[in-house]
Design goal:
This protein has 5 helices and 6 strands, in the order βββαβαβααβα. The chain is an alpha+beta fold. The longest helix has 14 residues.
Length: 125
């Protein structure tokens, strides 16, 4: 087994993937204390959190120096969105992150929006 680590980052195995399970990363918690949308933008505030931060918390802070969406952050961290939201809520609670909801939500069943997407796909194909 070839186990590698990026600094204090998550332990990875070339064949098995992440060796630390997501429920361990979130301390067994499944619900964030802050409501996040997958399109919500998060960014560091400059406040240094006091107390213990896990490697995933530190990695999230590094990635949030510029605004980034929750979905993109979950992909970079290689964690499920639900676990990422729990980690981010920890950082919002201690003042290290700020969040901004998406400007507006489109109705996913809006006919004009669906037609525009279909037209765009037809032009690409």
């Amino acid at each position: 087994m070839n186990v590698t680590s990026a600094g204090d980052g998550p332990w990875l195995d070339a064949a098995a993937g992440r060796l630390v399970r997501p429920y361990t990363v979130s301390g067994g918690r499944t619900r964030p204390s802050t409501a996040f949308d997958l399109l919500s933008q998060v960014r560091t505030t400059g406040v240094v959190p006091l107390g213990y931060l896990g490697p995933e918390h530190r990695e999230a802070l590094d990635l949030c120096r510029a605004p980034v969406s929750v979905a993109e952050l979950a992909a970079h961290l290689r964690l499920p969105a639900a676990v990422t939201k729990v980690l981010l809520s920890d950082l919002v609670d201690c003042g290290a992150l700020t969040t901004k909801s998406p400007a507006h939500h489109h109705n996913p069943t809006d006919r004009s929006l669906l037609e525009a997407v279909l037209d765009g796909l037809r032009r690409k194909l």
